[in-house]
């Protein structure tokens, strides 16, 4: 286990280098940022001085070298919109997005686990068809459409929940349901299929013949042993929620990383774009590493060579 973890941590280094390479060239191909950073009445001399200060007159490999050097120091450049370093701005918005992602995952788990178990236990019944239909519908609904419908019903018609901001826990309810619904649909189908496979195993039939209580049989012997694929989708969906929350944050005017990234792309504030993409990429990498560790905890049969 320790050797495997050391190998995985060493593998993170080339992955991060590849990510920085992709981020740099995506931003490089987006165009010259100098025209956006200076006013319209800027003189050619002002433009040339700024290009020189930003090292934009250097060859591309040299620019990439400067980018890596600054990256090691945590410097992604200055945001021309906020006139501040980009990374602190991203880190300031990150907690709001993490809170939204975690609450959305709680919503998804509270829906998916009981729905998936019931669907598997009541296979080919009305309940199974209802849950399956719900999961298909939840997966098919676009986030922005569901968010708008929730705003219309609970914010405008019933006026019981706020539709923008993040001042209190009530501001998290509608965005969390919007994000959590699609994730719960995916998890429900996975839990159902995993539980169906486990319930066909010989040790389940043996435990049933020995008179094990149905709840114990399902939860302790069935659901516990079906957790490995569930953990996989759970951690992959957490990273998806963090990176995919931008649409929901824009719909609900939620001041998180997603809304910041959309504004930065629209305004071509490339320092913010670079910092945000890099932070999200690091989070995805380490979430996958945590998932690998949890595999071994929940299923000791898994061996790492």
UniProtKB/TrEMBL annotation:
The UniProt similarity line reads: Belongs to the binding-protein-dependent transport system permease family.
Query: Main localization of the protein?
Result: membrane
Domain annotation ABC transmembrane type-1: ranges? 94-291
Q: How does it sit in the membrane?
A: Multi-pass membrane protein
Instruction: Enumerate the transmembrane spans.
Output: 12-31, 98-121, 142-161, 173-191, 227-252, 272-295
The subcellular localization recorded is: Cell membrane
- Recorded superkingdom: Bacteria
**Entries under InterPro entries matching the protein:** BPD_transp_1_N, MetI-like, MetI-like_sf
Do you know which PANTHER family this protein is assigned to? DIPEPTIDE TRANSPORT SYSTEM PERMEASE PROTEIN DPPB-RELATED
Q: Which UniProt keywords apply?
A: Cell membrane, Membrane, Transmembrane, Transmembrane helix, Transport
Its recorded name reads: ABC transporter permease
